[in-house]
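Entry 12.
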Amino acid sequence: MKRKKHLQTARIAGATALFLLLGRPAAHAQDTTFASNGGFDPDRVIDLTHRLTLRVYGSTKFNSMDLEDGRQSSRITYRPNTNVNLGVGASYRSLTLNIGVGFPFLNGDQELRGRTRYFDAQGNMYGRRYAINLFAQVYQGYYIDALSYPGSAAGDPLYQSIIDHDRLRPDMHQENLGASVIYIVNNRKFSYRAAFNQDAWQRRSAGSMLVGGYADYQGMRSDRTEIPTPVDTLFDPALRFRRIDLYELGGLFGYVHTFVIGHHVFLSASFAGGIGLGRSETFFPEAEGDTSRVHLGLELRIQQRLAFGYNGNHACLGVSYTNERSTANLGPDVTYGWNVGNFRLFVAYRIPVRIGIIERAMRRLKGT
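Predicted 3D structure (tokens):
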């Protein structure tokens, strides 16, 4: 009896040892496969950052400002007259450079929407674990894109008078400076880069929860109030300012999913939202000079990313849209909102070449 028990114990020990001996190399092989594929699961994502990705694109960057009085159902939206740009770009390893230029034949609407001078630097950096959005904007010159108030039906003479004489606001000046960071929880099976930077290939559908945060400053000033004088009584007094300085800080939580058909056709949709703290200071023109008001409160943040197209081992083409919107309360049922984003059409092709100077620089940074 004891001999049988010893024999059974020996068999269990042998099986355990065999499992450990065979299991360790398998796990090590899997880790090696993931490492050689940029950390991604090769069954879901193929990392192509080791190739030179060349792209041609057309894009437009945008922002807008909304002033809304919910009690009186009054709202006005201002937009700058931005250009449509044609550009070229390249990505290699973790580096991406895009250069876009506006052409007159694509931007001939200055009589209708006025002229806008601007500097707009938006950077979207997509790593395996993080998606980072940076923006620094300075805009001079806006126009009224939408206006509604009680009685503003089609043919209203007051509305038409504002559109004819007060639609263009060359005196309006806006500054945006900020960043948002999103952590991709399921970062081995899902890639933002595949849809938005064209240097990876999402072969099978996958999604991920998103967790992150944001911080920014948004400022706007003008020579007179933002609400046209003929309708200023139809908007809450809190909106009759000529300058605002807004600081925001908060968290984001959301989800992203890329649907893939036949390994090549993809649709990627990302949504994240959150509530943050906002500090706004508004300045109102008076006969003796400006008076100011400080408001502290909660504000809503929404981040959206969409992309659709075709992706493969060598080529990628499609369309993408990114947008971040913030809404701050200036009083009961009175809000000031702004958004920033871009829309892009792109065609990209990947070339299997090795750029030695970048490879050596990256090895030095890694200390290898």
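Annotation: Residues 1-36 form one domain. The helical segments are 2-36, 110-113, 157-165, 192-196, 356-366.
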